[in-house]
């Protein structure tokens, strides 16, 4: 709901815009992703993709946010990726993934379709970045096999996190993909789907 009126300008807020949903990953609320089966993780991935298609954008860390505007971080990512593709002819994060796969300096885990790296710009301890190996703009653009291999690499990564200190490791993770809604009519080929993990 929109916030009520306030008698002081510090407590006035803009009218609410967008949608917020909460998604439970499993009927057992204490079961984390690395302890789920690959089929159960795949069901979560399919639900994320369905929500992304339904809402037009997603940030699937238990909460899913979709808005009618580009938030600051996404606007910066859009501009940076667009500039790189314009100057170099290839999506920035696709080129970055290829370089990290070749160098293997910051590689955490990989499979045929995905890789997880500690990005060289990391600012958080244990921060990682999940990237597809092929050019993918949006989560819902993944093929069946890529969704299966995504479930596998997520389980491997999250198991590694849990094993660091032998505890269920807390993290925030979100999918960043090409904007949708009115942007579906625009060329978004500069975007590369990615998911940062912030433990």
Can you describe what's shown?
α1 packs across α4. A hairpin with a 3-residue loop joins β3 and β4 (114-117). This protein is 34% helix and 14% strand. It has one domain: HIT-like (HIT family, subunit A, 2-Layer Sandwich). The protein is an alpha+beta fold and 199 residues long. The protein has a 5-stranded antiparallel beta sheet with strand order 3-4-5-7-6, sandwiched between helices. The protein has a two-stranded antiparallel sheet with strand order 1-2. Pfam families: GalP_UDP_tr_C, GalP_UDP_transf. Residues 78-199 form the Galactose-1-phosphate uridyl transferase C-terminal domain. GO terms for molecular function: UDP-glucose:hexose-1-phosphate uridylyltransferase activity; zinc ion binding. Its cofactor is Zn(2+).
Indicate the structural class.
Answer: alpha+beta
Major sheet details: 5 strands, antiparallel
User: Helical element count?
Assistant: 4
Q: What is the tally of beta strands?
A: 7
Output the CATH topology: HIT family, subunit A
- CA radius of gyration: 18 Å
Outline the low-pLDDT stretches.
Answer: 57-62
Count of distinct structural domains = 1
Strand order of the largest sheet: 3-4-5-7-6
At the fourth level of CATH, the homologous superfamily is HIT-like
Overall pLDDT metric: 86
First CA to last CA: what distance?
31 Å
Proportion in helices: 25-40%
Strand content: 5-15%
- According to CATH, what is the class? Alpha Beta
**Overall geometry:** globular
Name of the CATH architecture:
2-Layer Sandwich
